[in-house]
Design goal:
Helix content is 43%, strand content 16%. It is globular.
């Protein structure tokens, strides 16, 4: 009997980061790909022998595709040429941030490299405001149902959990004070709107105000890029600090460095330092409410929300258009707006859920996630995109 043909090869790239989240994400995706009949390998760019191992893998057989979170591995060179062009292998950079945050990472000049955006707003920014070369695709997270949580909702020992690094919005004041009068007026006008509503596209809003002031709206205009980045960073910092200022008065566990600027006088919450992902992930399954504060986007969700829902907790986050469409009918999802009275409204909703002892169908919630984030469609998206790249790149 002839030996079975080798499985299609997929390689995920990772590097070091503060809590090992990128490596854990790569391990998860490799597991997903392996369940669909692929051989999935992982290469850590901090391993001493990674170059030799990579060459051995790709020269033995051509990978179906390769990928890396946050663009890790996308820019590999082979004698000053793109490694992926030389070997004719599609590479996918899995992006969760705005392209202006690191333009070179989003615009690798190779027909075989594509940026895949899990946040629709960031894909729009890439397509509409970045003139540099590079492929871009829309992507959506996958969900593969794992074992049911081993604790009921009422058995959980952590009432409220937030795992998030803190940043003081005041860190941006020097950059804001350096803006010209016209730039600062645009920033202030946009910030007022963004803080009052979750339904804008931040980049489109900034572009509208910049055009009215005679500022060009593309990645080559430093003024436009500067305004967008400051708005994106300020909203991220402001939302996180607002949530922690409220949570600090609760019986909460807040995991993450950077919250030293929060006044902890009379705080009830426990503040813990950042920890590896394999240490904080089990906390989700021992928490009743898992909190999140989103960066400003309207078409996407943060992994903290999915983690809370998957682990049988109530996920609490600022709402957006995506969550309205995907999560609003779930009994263990709470979305809120940041406009006046948000603390009182959130207190009332949480009290209502606690009075019912949770009162939601955890198994039904996991089934909902599996239908909303189908793993098969996720894998097919990679396969289809890899085929498109090979056909068009020649």
């Amino acid at each position: 009997m002839p030996p079975a043909p080798p499985k299609p090869l997929v390689i995920g790239f990772t590097g070091e980061n503060a809590n090992g989240a990128l490596a854990a994400g790569t391990q998860y995706l490799n597991w997903v790909f392996s369940t669909y009949g692929m051989e999935a390998q992982q290469i850590n760019l901090f391993d001493a022998d990674w170059v030799g191992r990579l060459r051995a893998l790709v020269e033995e057989r051509t990978p179906l595709f390769c990928y890396g979170h946050a663009g890790v591995g996308a820019g590999l060179r082979n004698d000053n040429r793109s490694f992926w062009t030389d070997y004719k292998v599609p590479f996918f950079s899995l992006m969760y941030d705005h392209p202006f945050c690191n333009l070179p990472n989003h615009t690798i000049d190779s027909p075989y490299v594509a940026a895949c955006y899990f946040i629709g707003d960031f894909l729009e920014a890439r397509l509409n405001f970045v003139r540099q070369p590079g492929r871009a695709y829309a992507m959506r997270d996958s969900f593969v149902a794992s074992d049911a949580p081993n604790k009921t909702w009422m058995q959980r020992e952590i009432p409220y959990l937030l795992v998030k690094t803190g940043y003081n919005p005041a860190r941006l004041m020097p950059a804001l004070e350096a803006l010209s009068a016209a730039e600062r007026a645009i920033f202030d006008a946009c910030l007022s709107l963004l803080q009052g509503s979750a339904d804008y596209n931040l980049t489109l809003l900034a572009a509208e105000h910049c055009r009215a002031a005679g500022i060009e709206t593309h990645d080559g205009d430093a003024r436009f890029v500067r305004i967008v980045l400051l708005l994106e960073r300020y909203m991220r910092d402001w939302r996180g600090s607002q949530l922690v200022e409220w949570l600090k008065h609760k019986d909460a566990v807040i995991v993450g460095d950077g919250w030293d600027f929060i006044d902890k006088t009379d705080a009830k919450a426990r503040f813990l330092p950042s920890m590896p992902v394999h240490d904080y992930w089990p906390l989700n399954g021992n928490s009743r409410f898992v909190f999140n504060a989103n960066p400003y986007f309207r078409d996407g969700c943060h992994e903290r929300v999915l983690a809370g829902l998957q682990c049988g907790a109530v996920a609490v986050t600022d709402r957006n258009r995506f969550s309205d469409n995907v999560f609003a009918d779930m009994g263990n999802f709470v979305g809120f707006d940041w406009n006046a009275g948000w603390r009182e409204r959130l207190d009332a909703r949480i009290t209502e859920i606690e009075a019912k002892g949770g009162g939601f169908d955890a198994d039904g919630a996991r089934q909902h996630l599996a239908a909303a984030f189908p793993a098969e469609a996720f894998v097919v998206r990679f396969l289809t995109a890899a085929k498109e790249i090979r056909q068009s790149a020649g």
